[in-house]
């Protein structure tokens, strides 16, 4: 299986490449006031607004460093209606691929209750690589906010104006 590698601070992580739609350069985002923790804003992806999460902010309470290797990983994320929606993930050093058998990733021996997206780990000479399960990144309330249907968004806009 092919994985996209990236870093959050000094720690290495992997995403299943088949879940990735595209990796794009880090770009300016439309910020939204009072957004949930980790929500970086909206990006324009081929004429469509895509909610974007800063993985560093979500996991480490600090924004991703603005470097040439910091990228936005666009993934398909399940919505609340059985469909798929695009989600942007800001990650540092998202520039390498890795081909490994998924069986080489092992249970780390513990679970972090507030981080259900942390999957098994692969140990290599440079240290551990943890598999990120992007479908578990968002809590249910945040998923509802980010993936609200267009009609619901229009209703929200009308009631707030």
Characterization of the model:
The chain has helices spanning 55-60, 140-146, 150-160; strands at residues 2-8, 11-16, 20-25, 39-45, 48-54, 71-78, 84-99, 118-124, 127-132. By secondary structure, it is mostly beta strands. The mean pLDDT is 85.
Question: What is the topology?
Answer:
Elements (H helix, E strand, L loop, with lengths): L1 E7 L2 E6 L3 E6 L13 E7 L2 E7 H6 L10 E8 L5 E16 L18 E7 L2 E6 L7 H7 L3 H11 L1
Parallel strand pairs: 2-9, 5-7
Antiparallel strand pairs: 1-2, 1-7, 3-6, 4-5, 6-7, 8-9
Radius of gyration using CA atoms only: 16 Å
Number of helices: 3
Give unreliable regions as ranges: none
Question: Describe the biggest sheet?
Answer: 9 strands, mixed
Mean pLDDT: 85
Helix share, percent: 10-25%
Strand percent estimate? 35-45%
Topology order in helix (H) and strand (E) letters: EEEEEHEEEEHH
Distance between the termini: 49 Å
């Amino acid at each position: 299986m092919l994985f996209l590698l990236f870093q959050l601070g000094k720690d290495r992580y992997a995403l299943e490449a088949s879940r990735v739609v595209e990796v794009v350069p880090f770009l300016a985002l439309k910020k939204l006031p009072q957004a949930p923790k980790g929500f970086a804003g909206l990006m324009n992806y081929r004429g469509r607004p895509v909610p974007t999460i800063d993985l560093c902010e979500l996991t480490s309470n600090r924004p991703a460093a603005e470097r040439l290797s910091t990228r936005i990983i666009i993934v398909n994320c399940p919505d609340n209606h059985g469909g798929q929606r695009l989600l942007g993930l800001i990650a540092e050093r998202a520039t390498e691929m890795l081909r490994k058998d998924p069986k080489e990733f092992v249970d780390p021996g513990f679970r972090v209750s507030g981080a259900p997206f942390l999957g098994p780990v692969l140990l290599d000479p440079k240290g551990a690589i943890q598999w990120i399960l992007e479908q578990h990144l968002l809590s249910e309330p945040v998923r509802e906010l980010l993936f609200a249907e267009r009609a619901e968004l229009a209703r929200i806009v009308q009631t707030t104006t």
